[in-house]
Amino acid sequence: MTALWVAVALVVAGFAGWPVTALVFRLARTIDDKADAAKAAEEARRVEHDPSADVTVDDPSGGAANQAVDGELTAPPAVPASDGTAAGPALASQRILRGGAIIGVLERLGVCLAILTGQPVAIAYIVAIKGLGRFAELKETPVAAERFIIGTLTSMLWAAGTAAAVKVLFLH
User: Fold this and answer.
1) Are 73 and 67 in contact (CB under 8 A)?
2) Closest of 155, 51, 165 to residue 105, by C-alpha
3) Which residue would you say has higher pLDDT here, 94 or 45?
4) Per-state percent for the chain, helix, strand, coil, to nearest 5
5) Domain boundaries, the chain
6) pTM over 0.85
7) Which of 124, 125, 131 is CA-nearest to residue 151?
């Protein structure tokens, strides 16, 4: 019966943790978006009341065609770059922290197993391996570092909570 509860704990910790982590990422994104909107509104209010900010720039194309969905100005596709070089084919955007879902499952399985076997020190090894493996990418990209921290803490808390609950409730 113990093996069954260990297996259940590993499945729940490893695979049910992904939706929890995705939900936390969505919550973090919502909080960031609200903070960005508040900052933009404050900046607009400040500029509105600043007499030195009364500067207008004429946009020969009308402006609407150069406005991206997210509010950032983008150059139209036919216009060459301002430094004189022609824009080549559009590069696909690089995904941040590729392989994170698989690493997350393995991380949660390792943390859960470490707690169930009474070896919490193994969690330090998991964190060290994960951090060293991502160090170069985290150093270059602050967004990736933030996402790494949020994902790691969420995954570890989920796995530790699942393992603790199974250990307390079913594995006396």
Assistant:
1) yes
2) 155
3) 45
4) 70, 0, 30
5) 12-41+99-172
6) no
7) 131
